[in-house]
Amino acid sequence: MVVLLRVVVCRYQFDSYGKGDFTKAPIQVQTGWLIVKVDDKRSGKILSYDSVRKELSKSLSQQYIGEIIRRLRSTAKVVQ
């Protein structure tokens, strides 16, 4: 099975790889093993806090609410 992932990785780990190169060995991650192919290399820029503040706040709020809902569902007693 082939799974396509768009991953942004630390450029320092893959400096020696060129476009089209594969990792020499599988990389173990939390969900399993990956073989990485470098499709493109671009220089990134560091964003200011003010430019990502709204998105960051929204993401953290959604995570917090999701956790609350998960806890409520796990402790709920359904009566029919």
Indicate the low-confidence ranges by residue numbers.
Answer: none
Radius of gyration: 20 Å
Name the structural class: mainly alpha
Number of helices: 1
Termini separation (Å)?
Answer: 43 Å
Strand tally is 2
The share of residues in extended strands comes to 5-15%
Write the element-wise H/E pattern from the N-terminal end onward: EEH
- Helical fraction equals 25-40%
Strand count, sense and barrel status of the largest sheet are: 2 strands, antiparallel
| Overall pLDDT metric | 80
Strand order of the largest sheet: 1-2
Envelope shape: flat
Give a verbal description of the structure:
The protein is 34% helix and 8% strand. It has one helix spanning 49-75; strands at residues 27-29, 32-34. The mean pLDDT is 80. Strand 1 and strand 2 (32-34) form a beta hairpin.
Looking at this protein, list some descriptive labels.
single chain, mainly alpha, two-stranded antiparallel sheet, flat
Fold blueprint:
Blueprint: E1 27-29, E2 32-34, H1 49-75
Antiparallel strand pairs: 1-2
What's this entry about, in short?
With 80 residues, the protein is mainly α.
